[in-house]
Amino acid sequence: MSEQTIVENHKVEVLPKHTTNPSYSTIKKQVFIIGSKGIPAAYGGFETFVEELTKLQKSKQIRYHVARLTVDETRFRYNGAKVFDVKVPSIGATKAIYYDVMALKHCIDYCKARPEIKEPIFYVLACRIGPFIGPYAKQIHALGGKLFVNPDGHEWKRAKWSAPVRRYWKLSEKLMVKHADLLVCDSKNIEAYIRTDYRKYTPKTTFIAYGADTRNSTLKDSDKGFAQWLAKNNLAPEEYYLIVGRFVPENNFETMIKEFMKSSSKRSLAIVTTSDEAFLSKLEEKLHFKSDPRIKFVGTVYDVELLKKIREKAYGYIHGHSVGGTNPSLLEALGSTKMNLLFNVGFNREVAENSAVYWSKKPGDLASLIDKCDNLSNDVVADMGQRAKQRIADAYSWDKIIQAYETLFVKN
To answer: What confidence category does residue 1 fall into, taking pLDDT thresholds of 50, 70 and 90?
Structure first.
């Protein structure tokens, strides 16, 4: 018998360790999701995607199975999905690769032990395990199943990786494309890249975006926690620009901070990010940003509703991401912040279209744009905010994304 318990503050139904031939397996399409850290989601783009995919499930024809990275081994049901823990040792940078391989192996073994499962789908998020995927792809096909892959963004371009690691990511991506039955791209730019760079494999692709929402934060403007956050960081509503993102070179923190310091803005720049002391020290050596009282590193904010309120009350959001597909933090900004200043690359333009303004790395470009935005009328700012919300509603609502995925899974 199963029982109710709490996993990370979420009520879930714990499943027995050995469940063979469950009645639902012969009826529903079995979809195995590998590559996220699992649900209940605490953070992360893929984790939020899987949370929403299962929470908002409409189709009764699908049963989701979700791998979860953990230090123990538990099986439970959450959002109607069967969640299984994969215990992974602390082995450094290769931990994620090991996790994906073990999770995929678990799913394949699960299906082998249950011949009543017909035509399962194995959906692998990101291209970490390309050098190992060949034999597993054969086993999947022997089961009558299909291998779907989300190629994510250009991981091999990220500056944080050494040259050998970047070569691994590029090779891994190539092999995942080669063996996938379908590549589900959350960016049209990524889809075009896959079809062009790997044309020799004649990859089959489809585009399904990442999702977001346009609802307001559940916190009131007078919320005590928000007021304390503002006071702690010496900020006032509508009197700060906001940056949210990982503190890595390809997110262009150096350019954004340098250009803000050049601007004449009387507003502050609040930077929500993890603390990387080494990177921060290098940045200080180059920019001497500590001498500018407008620049405020405010740490991380893991409270979803508080972060949404912080976005809502920002005067503008500055987005510097240059690598990857559809970025969740950009979608969240468009759904909450009126004025959005985005780095001018195809990925960002694809998402925001005419609901944002764009800047380049040309010296003075972003500084000039900040000064222009500072002097816009309230009506113009409000109109930009409305366009941004409408863009999310039209193309990136979770309901649309979930419907597209369910149609894809059921038809395959």
So the answer is: very low
